[in-house]
Write a structure and sequence with these properties.
- There is one protein chain.
- The protein is α/β, with parallel strands linked by helices.
- The protein has a single domain (3-266), classed as 3-Layer(aba) Sandwich (Rossmann fold).
- Helices cover 39% and strands 23% of the residues.
- It has helices spanning 13-35, 52-60, 73-82, 120-129, 150-162, 171-174, 180-189, 209-213, 222-229, 232-245; strands spanning 42-46, 65-70, 88-92, 105-111, 131-142, 193-206, 254-266.
- A 7-stranded mixed sheet has the order 3-2-1-4-5-7-6, sandwiched between helices.
- Strand 1 (42-46), helix 2 (52-60) and strand 2 form a beta-alpha-beta unit.
- Helix 1 (13-35) packs parallel to helix 2 (52-60) and helix 5 crosses helix 10 (232-245).
- The termini are far apart.
């Protein structure tokens, strides 16, 4: 399967918010609680997207400053519009070449991004480079192999039943390293010390099936990209298969959960 066939399109900020952004905020809060940082630190949010993690840092962690780095102009525009805080600024940049000086920041974090970066090891090296000795590098990614995004697992299961080739596009096949120990090993290989990891969870509650289905039709991300590429007939067949397969209580809502793996490490003093 070619890269073009994987529909990794992350340019539409509003569409991403409906598909993933609304759920990433809950995970961001769990991640920051797990980190338990001090107030007054200088932060960098690598791959800040529409600002879910950045907003949570500003709300919960009392940062001295925050720099959000994001390659997508559309995502940056949405983050800037939504976050009016003098401590924060948002800049266009690449996780593999951060536009930030060496050893200038206390904490560098990245949320739900690292698996999409072409060179993950280079991204971790860059995150480590900009942190002061004794500072922290931390990140989290969805637990794709463990079915941690239950709404996404339901989508790809239904899609693969109708189109076996769809299985090659699913994130669990593409990102098998998105599990605790492999991610921990990756962090340790980058030179981080005192590396720890844990699973973090948040609910994903959809009002009804339409609330579940509509984000998949908007094209932002691999699953919505695949859905949008289908013929009208095949898309309707997928819709019907999903509608029949999802668990719902009497009020018609769809109650699922999202799980991510969080990793943190310390930059060596004197490094």
């Amino acid at each position: 399967m070619t890269d073009a066939g994987r529909h990794d399109a992350w340019s539409a900020g509003d569409a991403y918010e409906q598909y993933m952004g609304r759920w990433s905020r809950g995970i961001a809060r769990q991640f920051l609680d797990w980190m338990s940082p001090s107030d007054g630190l200088t932060w960098v949010d690598v791959g800040c997207g529409t600002g879910a993690l950045s907003a949570s840092i500003l709300e919960r962690c009392g940062p001295g400053s925050l720099i959000g780095i994001e390659p997508s102009p559309a995502f940056l525009a949405l983050a800037r519009n939504r976050i009016a805080d003098g401590r924060a600024r948002f800049e266009q940049g690449d996780a593999q070449a951060l536009p930030i000086g060496d050893r200038t920041q206390d904490v560098v974090v990245s949320g739900l991004v690292l698996n999409f970066v072409p060179d993950r090891n280079l991204a971790l090296a860059e995150m480590k480079r900009v942190v002061r000795p004794g500072g922290t590098v931390a990140f989290y990614v969805w637990d794709y192999p463990g079915g941690g995004l239950e709404f996404l697992r339901a989508f790809w299961t239904a899609a693969s039943e109708l189109d076996p080739k769809a299985a090659d596009l699913s994130e669990d096949q593409r990102f098998p390293f998105c599990q605790g120990q492999p991610l921990c090993d990756m962090a340790e290989a980058s030179g981080l010390m005192d590396v720890a990891f844990d699973a973090i969870e948040a609910p994903t509650i959809f009002r009804d099936f339409e609330d579940f289905w509509r984000p998949f039709t908007l094209g932002a991300g691999p699953a919505p990209g695949y859905c949008s590429s289908l013929s009208e007939r095949d898309r309707e067949a997928l819709r019907e298969r999903l509608d029949a397969s999802l668990p719902r209580p009497g009020d018609g809502s769809i109650m699922l959960k999202a799980r991510a793996w969080a990793v943190r490490g310390r930059v060596l003093e004197g490094a």
